[in-house]
Design brief:
The chain has one domain. It is of the alpha+beta class. The chain has three helices and four strands, in the order E-E-E-E-H-H-H. Strands 1-2-3-4 form a four-stranded antiparallel beta sheet. The termini are close together.
């Protein structure tokens, strides 16, 4: 199975960073942030309200990085 991985970083007020990676695959994508891995279907990615529920425990800074990566994943799904 082929995959595409895209990455970015969450930058905190103190200047520290935490990586976020999204692995795009045929059935959806896998978001990895800190020690948490979250599997998302394409249907979940189409609904920002549902994404906000899935990532309710994330900080706003993290969510602001995850959502654009999820949007990129949606654009890349047809490339697989």
């Amino acid at each position: 199975m082929s995959t595409i991985t895209i990455t970015d970083e969450v930058t905190y007020a103190d200047g520290s960073t935490t990586p976020v990676s999204v692995e795009v695959h045929k059935d959806g994508c896998t978001v990895t942030h800190h020690d948490t891995t979250t599997e998302l279907s394409w249907e979940q990615l189409d609904d920002v309200e549902q994404l906000s529920e899935v990532f309710a425990d994330c900080t706003v800074r993290s969510f602001k990085v995850i959502v654009p990566l999820a949007a990129k994943a949606l654009k890349l799904k047809d490339a697989l």
